[in-house]
Structures are given as C-alpha cells and as structure tokens.
Input
Amino acid sequence: MSSTVQCGIELAISASDRLPSVAVRNSDGEIRVEAPTDRTAGDLTGLIADSFARWGHQPDELRAIRLDLGPGSYTGLRVAVTFARTARQFQGVTVHTCTSLQLIALAALREKMVTNDDRVRPVLDARRQRYHHALVATDGLQVLEAPSAVGLDELRDRIQANEVLLAAEPLHETLATTVLDRGAKLIAPPPWNAKLLFDDRLDLTATESADLEPLYLMGSYAE
Output
C-alpha cells in the first residue's frame, strides 16, 4: 500500500489503551499527534474534532484511516470502529488496520528493546482470568499466531524458547516462572500511540466495512 495519501489527510486512531490517541498526516507527509486533554480524556470523537480544528482541517479532507483494532479497551475500540465504519460508508474513506499487539511489538522495536531477529509475544490482561496475546515477527511485524484471549494454562503452553514476552509489570509475577523454564525473556513494553500506525514497517491490512470488528473478549476470539 502507498505510505502517503496523495491529497487530503490521513487519520490514525489507536483506542486500545486506557486513553485513546490520534495522529493526522497531511498531504505533505507531516504528522501531528493529538494528546488527550482533561476535556477529551476517553472521548475519541472529541479528540478527533479537536485535532482537525487545531490544525485547520475540514472533515471532507479525510481520505484514509489507519486503525488499531485491539485487543484492549472495550469502549474505546467500539467507538473507534464505529467512527471508521461511518467514514468508510458515507465518505468513501479507505481503512487499513492492524492489531494493538503489533503496535506494542513495534514500540519495543523502535526503542531497541528487541531486534529484527526476535519473535515477540505481547501479552495484555483481558480480565476474567484471560490474557490477550499473539506471536509477532519483528522483521515485518507480521502476525505468526493470530491474536486470541486464553486462560493462563494455555498461554503458558504457547510460550516457546527464545521468545520475548512484552507484558506490563503487574503480569510479571504470573509469567516469570514459565518464561524462565522455557528459556524465554520477559520485559515491560514501552508506551504506544497512534503515530506508530504511520510506521512503514507495519503489516497493515485493507479492511472493508463488514470486516471492521474490534478485538476484545467475545465470541470465537476468546475460545
């Protein structure tokens, strides 16, 4: 896919984390990130409106969306996907997607916490004694094992030698013994935001409206 939009603007949305983030790239390739304020914290549509107003863009300039489908925040992902569906249906906007687990792997790669030769397994707490995870190749950031939400025993069974697990520190005590036994590595990931969606190393997928579904604990995804 092309790395830039030929005219108009391109919007990146990551709403999987506790606070949503957006970034806008104009036709000249300049990228601007809009951070949540006290007023827009948790309000994705307000954050997008503020970003457009701040940088002098009109809604009809929007040509493409890059979207993080999760897993992560239930409310944030639901709002983000609804926004993308609406923009695609009524404005003909193209939508390209990836997972939040790919973004976490990319953030670690950019911070040189992992190398291009590593296979990383980002892990998020899915609550209800389940854990979101996927296996990602840092070379190309392709998903080797599809994201799923599994119980702790199944997660432990999936961990293999030489993998790098990216998990927040509260999960380290739960995973440390298995990681040590399997010869894997466990580190806390750096923060990530919507700007990462413009990194050309991401394996983004062109996504139709019917396929725009957030990844969270539901349906076959959680089995």
Q: What stands out?
A: Confidence is low (pLDDT under 50) at residues 1-6. Residues 74-91 form the longest helix (18 residues). The chain has two domains: 9-99+192-222, 100-187. DSSP finds five helices and eleven strands in the chain.
